[in-house]
UniProtKB/TrEMBL annotation:
Domain D-3-phosphoglycerate dehydrogenase ASB: residue ranges: 323-439
Name of the gene encoding the protein in the UniProt record: serA
EC number(s) recorded for this UniProt protein: 1.1.1.95
UniProt entry tagged with the keyword Oxidoreductase: yes
Catalytic activity: (2R)-3-phosphoglycerate + NAD(+) = 3-phosphooxypyruvate + NADH + H(+)
Short name of any one Pfam family annotated for the protein: 2-Hacid_dh
Superkingdom of origin: Archaea
Protein's organism: Halomarina halobia
Keywords: Amino-acid biosynthesis, NAD, Oxidoreductase, Serine biosynthesis
InterPro entries: ACT-like_dom_sf (IPR045865), ACT_dom (IPR002912), ASB_dom_sf (IPR029009), D-2-hydroxyacid_DH (IPR050857), D-isomer_2_OHA_DH_cat_dom (IPR006139), D-isomer_DH_CS (IPR029753), D-isomer_DH_CS1 (IPR029752), D-isomer_DH_NAD-bd (IPR006140)
UniProt keyword annotation of Transit peptide present: no
Name used for this protein in its record: D-3-phosphoglycerate dehydrogenase
Residue stretches making up the D-isomer specific 2-hydroxyacid dehydrogenase catalytic domain: 3-311
Length: 529
């Protein structure tokens, strides 16, 4: 069987594959038609960040079982398309974490002490001693955006060097942050307080341009470091902010388009220092990720569990037909719950009542977690769900009771921060017609896909008419509506199933009415937004 390797990985990984009896074909820098031709008969494809694994590539790969990413970031791999083609995607999320953290620390020092600039001057014969007055990290505040594996390692290192830590990460528990000596805060507060800002999130629709012109102004005077992914920090805005002295300097290892174009404005600004995506480039890291991914490719081809599979649910084939309809329902319930919840999630409970409680529901729980973790790049499945939650300090419980209320079966997803919670319940009408039947204690009846508007309002005459009119004026068709209320005239929760998304201006318009406390648009599945 052929394993195609399209980005350089350490020999130790290639050797492991050969020893296991595979034909290893290295074809670095191939793309387009050439890549599609090479991958046609490959059972495994191993990449780093240099290869775009697109729908086209996956469609051409008739024999492909697994795409292995020798590293962390999978933004160059179309995971949805891989899932559609039944191809496992796995990464090596641990092997280069320390290398990335060390590079981040190096970049912090380099930019704060102008090391590359001073070195360059010295090489041209200039002794520019009087021109560089640096900044110490000691006693400064480090703002960390994304307190995952790399963020946590950076936190440990820079805390040991005398920095105070403040972090923004909606998916990490306060306890875990406490253990690191980091205070959790919202992004605005992190920007207000940080002297150095370092980002360690994946690149997702939510994090793209997370740090733009406004955020840089808010940071004011500090340094920005990005050793995570290009595109999280707006490059044009960053170059302008450093040029204009809005911030003191920036250090980047990753870029929106790689290799970095010679025309990039970043190259023209003195206090911006750049490295060509070297965060993972240490001998130890490369050996770690190469052997880890080789082991996983071998496991997949032997039909064994793949440790860091990002899209591979494992199921009992015989029970699967009975469980299957609950999978998407639970994901949607999780997705609704997390979008409506305003706190920081530190526990998720998935509760099964009635006949579904008799089934093996691991995949349904994993699916609920997938919904809750939806904003993360990482796909959660039965293989990785407990670990993802554990790493974030989030407790996951699964409870079962044979008793169900009016429904034969009910699946509830509850997200909580220990004080407040949101519970979203779903059921199947007539055995296979999924519905959301309860949100935050209110009885509702909503289709669990497409577009949803949830309004919290007072049960006063005219409110429903107003919402209908505003949606109508904006050409948003209502497919269904349910008004759940506590008491006549009291608080109510109104749920609209819609045919299209609701722009922010429409939400603002609804919230202008004093009878509407909150209106939220929720995109419920991939096809919805
Ligand atoms: N420069 C390099 O060579 C290099 C090396 C290793 C990793 N990386 C990159 O570093 C990044 C972090 O890697 P990791 O292993 O720590 O990933 P991780 O998944 O362990 O951590 C990412 C963290 O970001 C948080 N997050 C997600 N969306 C967020 C949002 N909108 N706002 C705030 N926080 C959010 C998550 O909750 C998580 O805690 C990735 O982009 C990875 O590709 C780069
Ligand atoms: O996400 C990663 O693992 C790093 O960005 C390293 O990418 P690379 O393997 O292309 O160097």
């Amino acid at each position: 069987m052929k394993i195609l390797v399209t980005d350089p990985i350490a020999d130790a990984g290639l050797e492991r594959l050969r020893e296991a009896g595979y034909e290893v074909v290295t074809a670095y820098d191939v793309e387009g038609a050439e890549l599609r031709e090479e991958v046609r008969d490959a059972a495994g494809l191993i990449v780093r960040s240099g290869t775009e694994v697109t729908e086209d590539v996956l469609a051409a790969a008739g024999e492909l079982v697994i795409v292995g990413r020798a590293g962390i970031g999978v933004d160059n791999i179309d995971i949805d398309a891989a899932t559609d083609h039944g191809v496992i995607v796995a990464n090596a999320p641990e092997g280069n974490v320390r290398a990335a953290a060390e590079h981040t620390v190096a970049m912090a020092f380099a930019v704060a002490r102008s090391i590359p600039q001073a070195h360059a001057r010295l090489r041209t014969g200039e002794w520019a001693k009087g021109e560089y007055l640096g900044t110490e990290v000691n006693d400064k505040t480090l703002g960390i955006v994304g307190l995952g594996r790399v963020g946590q390692e950076v936190a440990r290192r820079l805390s040991a060097l005398g920095m105070d830590l403040v972090a923004y990460d909606p998916y990490i528990s306060a306890e875990r942050a406490d253990q690191l000596g980091a205070e959790l805060a919202d992004l605005e507060e992190v920007l207000d307080r940080a002297d150095f800002l370092t980002v360690h999130t994946p690149l997702t629709p939510e994090t793209a341009n997370l740090i733009g012109e406004e955020e840089l102004r808010r940071l004011g005077g500090g340094y920005v470091i990005n050793c995570a992914r290009g595109g999280i920090v707006d490059e044009d805005a960053l170059a302008a902010a450093v040029e204009e002295g809005v911030i003191a300097g920036a250090a980047l290892d990753v870029f929106a388009a790689e290799p970095l174009s010679e025309d990039s404005p970043l190259l023209d600004v003195d206090d911006v220092i750049l490295t060509p995506h070297l965060g993972a480039s240490t001998e130890a890291a490369q050996e770690n990720v190469a052997t880890s991914i080789a082991d996983q490719v071998i496991a997949a081809l032997n039909d064994e569990p793949v440790l860091n599979a990002l899209n591979a649910p494992s199921v009992d084939k015989r029970a699967f037909p009975r469980v299957r309809p609950y999978i998407e329902l639970a994901e949607t319930a999780g997705r609704i719950a997390v979008q409506l919840f305003e706190g920081r999630v530190n526990a998720v409970e998935v509760e099964y009542a009635g006949t579904i409680a008799e089934e093996e529901v691991e995949i349904v729980t994993a699916s609920a977690l997938k919904g809750v973790f939806r904003p993360l790049e990482l796909r959660v499945n039965t293989v990785n769900a407990p670990r993802v939650a554990e790493e974030r300090g989030i407790d996951v419980t699964e409870s079962k009771t044979s008793q169900s209320d009016v429904f034969q079966s009910r699946v509830s997803v509850i997200v909580t921060d220990g004080e407040d919670d949101i519970r979203v319940c779903g059921t199947l009408f007539a055995g296979d017609d999924p519905r959301i039947v309860q949100i935050d204690g209110y009885r509702v009846d909503a289709i669990p896909h497409g577009h949803m508007l949830v309004a919290r309002n007072y049960d006063k005459p005219g409110v429903i008419g107003l919402i209908g009119t505003v949606l109508g004026e904006n050409d948003i068709n209502i497919a269904g509506m349910f008004n759940g209320r506590e008491t006549i005239g009291g608080e109510a929760l109104t749920v609209y199933s819609l045919d299209s998304e609701v722009p922010d201006e429409v939400i603002d318009r609804l919230e202008e009415d004093e009878r509407i406390m909150r209106a939220q648009y929720l995109a419920l599945n991939n096809h919805a937004k």
